[in-house]
Amino acid sequence: MFARLVGLVILVILAAALASWLGAQPGMLAFEWLGWQVEMRTSLAVALLVVLALLLLFVDRLFRGLLGLPAWFGRNLARRRTESGHRALALGLMAVSAGEPDEARRQASRAQRLLAAPQLTDLLSAQAAHLSGDHQAADRYFTSLTRDKDTAFLGHVGLARLALEKDDPDAALAAARTALDIRPKSALAARQVMILEAERGNWAAALPALSVVMAAGDADDETGMLLSRQKAALSYLEALDDSAGSDTSLRRRARIGKAQDALAVMPGFWPAALLLADLHEQAGSPKKAVKPLETAFRNMPHELLAMRLRTLWGVNEGTAAGRLMRLIPDDGALAAEGRRVVAAVALENGLVGEARRLIDEIDPAMRDAAAWRLVARLAAEGEAPDGAAENDALREAGEAPRPRRWQCTSCQLVHEAWQPHCGGCAGFATLEWRRPDGITPLISSADETD
Predict the structure, then answer these.
(1) Comparing 45 with 405, which gets the higher pLDDT?
(2) Which residues contact 414 (CB under 8 A, 6 or more apart)?
(3) Residue 425: exposed, middle, or buried by beta-carbon count in 10 A (0-12, 13-18, 19+)?
(4) From CA 179, how far away is CA 188, in angstroms rounded?
(5) Consecutive H or E run containing 433
(6) For 217-332, where are the alpha helices, taking DSSP H only?
(7) Same domain, 392 and 412
(8) Is 100 helix (H, G, I), strand (E, B) or coil?
C-alpha cells in the first residue's frame, strides 16, 4: 500500500514537471478547418492530443467490454459451477470417509451433474455405492473406471475388493493381478496378490508379489516384522513342498536354498532350521546343518534344536551340554530361556547336577512356568526328595508366565504348532513364537511339548 502511494506521488510530480516544461516552451500552432482559423499555443495542442488519445482508449475499452460481457458471464457461471462441483466432490469423499452412504451418494450425484470429469465422479460414485451396499452399482462404476487408462488401476483394485466381499477369490485374484500388471511397483495390488496366492497355497507365486511390497519401504516397525515373517514363511513353505519330486538332487538343492532364505530373514525361525537339517541329511551331508542350527539356537533356544545338535555333534551328554551353554546369549530373557532348555536336556540325559546348576543360574523373576516345573522335578527326583520345595515350585509355576507358544499377533489365538494361516482370523504368517499375551498362566500338559 505504501509503495503504491509513493508511486502515485512520483507520477503526479512527473506529470506536473512535464506540464510546466511544456508551458514554458515558446511557439504557436495555427491551422484552418472548415473556414475556421484556429491558433493555440503548442503546449496546449500537445495536451489536447494526449486527452484525445486517452478518450479514444477509454471508448475502445468500453466497447470491447460490452462485446465481451456475455462471454464474461459464461466464464463466471462455468467457474461457479466448477467450484460447486469440486465442493460436492470433496463433501462426497468426506462422507465416504465418515461412513455416511446417503450423503455420499447425494454428493456424488451432484458432482456428476456439475463436473465434466467422469474419472473423479465415477470413482466417488463407486465408493458411495460400495459403502451403501449396492454392489451392482459399485461393480458398474468400477468397471467404467477400467476403460480409462488413467483410472484403470483404481478400477481393478476396486473390483478385486468387491470380489473378495462376494467371496469370489478367483475374480479377486484376476483383478488384483491386472492392477499389478498396470502398476508393477504398486504395494497395494501386490499385497492383494500375495495374500490371495498364499490362501491358495501358491507359495512360489506369492513370493514375487511380497518382494514388491517389501521394496516399497514405507512400512512401520510392526508391519516390517510381519513382512519378514511372511517372507520367511513363504520360503519355508516352498522348502517344505516336496510335491515337485524332492528325491531329485536338483529339487533338493532348490529346497535347501529356500530353507536358507527363510533363515536369512529370521535366523530364529527354528522350524526352518530343523527342515534344513533334514534336507542336508537327505542329501548325505548332515554336517552342513550344524551351523544353521547353532545360529537358530542362539537366536531362539529350543529343545528340538538342542536334541538335533547333540545328534549331529556325535558327542556324549556332558560335552553336548557344554557346547549348548556356549551358544546361550550372555544376558536377557533368551539367556534365561537358553539355560532352561539346556537344563531340561541335561535332566533328560540324567545330568541332574548340571541341570540344577543351570536352573539356579536363572533369576527367579526370569523363570517361566516350564522353568519352575523343572525346579519341581529336581526337588522330587533328587537324592533327598523335598515335597515342600516341589509344592512351592509348582505353585510358582501356576503364577509364572507361560512358556513360548505360537501365538497370532492379530487375534492372540495360541496354536500348539506352526501353521501358515491362523486358525482364528486366517491371517497369513501372523504366528509368532513368543510368550502368550493376554492368557492366564496355567499348568497343563500342553506346556511340556513343542
Answers:
(1) 405
(2) 405, 406, 407, 408, 436, 439
(3) middle
(4) 9
(5) strand 431-434
(6) 221-240, 249-265, 270-282, 290-299, 303-313, 317-327
(7) no
(8) coil
Distance CA 341, CA 373 (A): 12
Region label for 328, one of left (φ > 0), alpha (ψ between -120 and 50) or beta (otherwise):
beta
- Asked if residue 48 has pLDDT above 80, the reply is no
C-alpha cell at position 278:
533334514
Please check whether residues 268 and 318 belong to one and the same domain. no
- pLDDT at position 245, please? 52
Asked if residue 47 belongs to a domain, the reply is no
Q: What is the CATH number of the domain that holds 277?
A: 1.25.40
Contact between 235 and 262 (Cβ < 8 Å):
yes
Predicted TM-score (pTM) of the model is: 0.71
Do 314 and 386 lie in a common domain?
Answer: yes
Question: Do 358 and 449 belong together in one domain?
Answer: no
57-66, 103-112, 295-304, 425-434: least confident range: 103-112
Q: What pLDDT score does 446 carry?
A: 39
pLDDT at residue 443 in the model: 36
CA distance 388 to 219: 53
The reply to whether 355 falls in a domain is yes
Among the listed ranges 144-158, 192-206, 261-275, 434-448, which one has the minimum average pLDDT value? 434-448
Q: How many domains does the chain have?
A: 3
Domain that holds residue 270: 231-240+248-300
Q: Based on the fold, state whether residues 343 and 412 are members of the same structural domain.
A: no
Do 393 and 306 fall into the same domain? yes
Q: Average pLDDT in the 409-429 region? A: 92
Residue range 387-411: mean pLDDT, rounded: 89
How confident is the prediction for the chain on average, in pLDDT?
84
Residue 34 in grid coordinates: 472548415
Q: What is the pLDDT of residues 119-131, one digit of tens each?
A: 677 777 777 777 7
Long-range contacts of 128-136 (CB under 8 A, 24+ apart): 128/92, 128/95, 128/96, 128/101, 128/104, 129/105, 130/158, 130/161, 130/162, 131/96, 131/99, 131/101, 131/104, 132/101, 132/102, 132/104, 132/105, 133/101, 135/162, 135/165, 135/166
pLDDT in tens, 159-194: 998 898 888 999 999 999 999 999 999 999 999 999
DSSP state of 331: S
Whether residue 428 is found in the same domain as residue 364: no
Q: Domain check: are 319 and 363 in the same one?
A: yes
Give residue for cell 490371495: 196
Least Cα distance to 352 among 378, 317, 372, 379 occurs for 378
Is 345 part of a structural domain of the chain?
Answer: yes
Is 200 within a domain?
Answer: no
